[in-house]
Amino acid sequence: PNRYTATATLLPPQSNDQLTAMAGAIPGLMSALGGSRSRADQMLYPAVLQSRSVIEPLLAVDMPTRTPGRSTTLAQVLDAEDPERACTKFCRRMLRTSLEATTGICRVSVTMTDPVTAAAVCNALIESMVHRGVQLKSSGAGQLRGFLSGRLGEVQTELSAAEKRLEAFRERNRNYNRAAAPDLVLEDERL
After folding, report:
1. 32-43 per-position pLDDT tens digit
2. At how many degrees (to 10) do helices 115-172 and 38-49 cross?
3. Exposed, middle or buried: residue 168 (CB in 10 Å: 0-12, 13-18, 19+)?
């Protein structure tokens, strides 16, 4: 039988996201939240495209065929009832990914015996990856917001305590002579 290949190209993201920039300013926070810079993200595209979390949702989706009015699912095409086996079979037999290191452009190709189904699966694969990326970024943004909110409360508490210590110090040492008590001047500046 003839084999048809549908190919899609993913361009590198141009990130100017303020939340990402803020998180990037805090050392180690991006990696702690599972995020990273866009270049590192690009390097993961081929692996993400071949992951179960991207492929498995496609197994039950109705895909059009070249026969009008007829559809099929990826699970039916793969003739596999076990999702893990179906994902593995799909990756080995029908899916090819490549990443051009210099440009960050990722290409994904799906080869099948039906050109319409190949194109539909390729498009659905990209949509699934985008959906998964949005899920991850949303959860990462929520975690970042939670972290920053918690940290803001801690910093406000620390600032309030420091202000109280300074006020108490100045109250106790209101009448000191700057020339006669240089250690108090240093303590005042430290607080």
Report:
1. 444 444 566 677
2. 140
3. exposed
Determine phi and psi for 135, rounding to 5 degrees.
Answer: -60, -45
Average pLDDT score over the chain: 77
Global pTM reads: 0.60
Percentage of the chain beyond pLDDT 90 is 14
Q: Which two tokens stand for residue 188?
A: 């005042």
Question: If you average pLDDT over residues 138-144, what whole number do you get?
Answer: 70
> What are the distances in angstroms from CA 180 to CA 8, 155, 183, 185?
78, 35, 9, 10
Separation CA 89–CA 81 (nearest Å)? 11
Three-class HEC string of the chain: CCCEEEEEEECCCCCCCHHHHHHHHCCCHHHHCCCCCHHHHHHHHHHHHCCHHHHHHHCCCEEECCCCCCEEEHHHHHCCCCHHHHHHHHHHHCEEEEECCCCCCEEEEEEECCHHHHHHHHHHHHHHHHHHHHHHHHHHHHHHHHHHHHHHHHHHHHHHHHHHHHHHHHHHCCCCCCCCCHHHHHHHHHC
For residues 69-88, give the mean pLDDT: 83
Cα distances from 144 to residues 20, 156, 178, 190, 191, in angstroms, run 9, 18, 46, 32, 31
